[in-house]
Amino acid sequence: MAEGKDIHATEQENKPDGRPPLRSRVWARTGFGEKTAWDLLQLLIVPLALAAIGFVFTAQQEVRQQELEDQRAQVEREIEAQRAEQVTFQAYLDQMGTLLLDRGLRAADENSDVRRLARARTLVVLDALSPTRQERALRFLNEAELIQGSPPNQQTVITLKYASLPNSELPHRILLRGANLQQADLSGSNLAHIDLRGTYLAGAHLEDADLEGANVTDEQLALCKSLEGATMPDGSKHD
Which pLDDT value is given to residue 191? Predict the structure, then answer.
């Protein structure tokens, strides 16, 4: 009979008052007395899973917020750069207007200070401007007849010798399309991938100029004063 009793019953008989051991009573009061190990594991999995999901969601939100802040900062930088560029371009136009109207730029001697100032300012501005405003600056110079030879001696007021016109992402930029560049000094300048259709190049100096990929005809180039050392549209070097 004693052998048929389970351990729990034996422990109860060993107690003077017949109550279960203290450990069993405490465990029963917690509500887990009837739970299996799997039941207990499930109780732990659910809050851990929820905590993990919350952590991942919070991390994703922080990454997204940082991306939005970076995008906003980039837009603000671009807007500020455009404003600064517009200020630079407007200052250039104002200064050129002063040189033309008040300092007699057109009639000034080739080696005069006013000519040197106009050329230096032009080259600096062309380096600083984006392709869009480069086009506007060059159209201003063309319409003001400052970069082509002017009568009676066909002398160029402002030369673009060694001017840097960086390539943009768009092929065949229209910077100089249709311009009158008669007698213009473009030697050593970067004219790669520029659209020169309709541009008048009679007597133009293109020594050592980069014309690779430029949209220009052989007939136009034949009118140039010199192409010595120039990189031709097909990438070859002119003798």
Answer: 86
